[in-house]
Amino acid sequence: VVVEVTIDEEGNVISARAISGHPLLKDAAIDAARGWTFNQTLLQGVPVKVIGTITFRFELGDSFEPHDPKELEALKRQVHESPNSPEAHLKLADAYVYRGNNDEAIDEYSEAIRLSPNFATAYYQLGRLYQQLQRYDEALDAYRFAINIPPELASVNKPSFTLADQTYMLIASIHLDRAQYAEALNVLSEAAKLYPDLMTLHLYLARAYLGLGDKHSALGEYELVKKSDPEFAREILKEIRKKP
Question: Exposure of 59 by Cβ count < 10 A (0-12 exposed, 13-18 middle, 19+ buried)?
């Protein structure tokens, strides 16, 4: 389940809403997101409010404690017993990420992809890890692989890939952070054809337009969402007002 969160200047989650995922799991994901806290986000040394997403993955069966050494050993055994299972490697990689074993996680995600080249979820998770490690070019490569896999091929893998909309947003966020506004706009324009109702899309489009000096188009994004989502519209307007 992907939850969109607004984080205040102190790092507290002040609003959360599920934007994709199974309907029966959305409330649990929202409740979990509201309990998170983050480090302050600084813009030129000044704390600022930000909007982002948190992805929650739910597992069927017994509860999973990723920090429990017994759980990690159990996942290692699964990989040992089923070395050709891309799903087993994916689960072990996720556990390594939780524990901060990033090199091992990269190896396991890569093995899952080697075993199943159309495993879009593995590309997505690998991209998230690379982005977290600030290895942005590698993150972009992984994300692009994920969104370029035809849905009929990606869907044969378990779990199926359901985060394509967020992958576009993550690609755009990297370009925006690197002041690559034209590249961000290209990605967002493509995403707009597929996911026109995604609120983050309009915020990111406004930022891209502002980066290119196109305040008029940024105002157009504000007009598009001001009735359907006033909170998001206010965030867009704040961005516009920052620009002279």
Answer: exposed
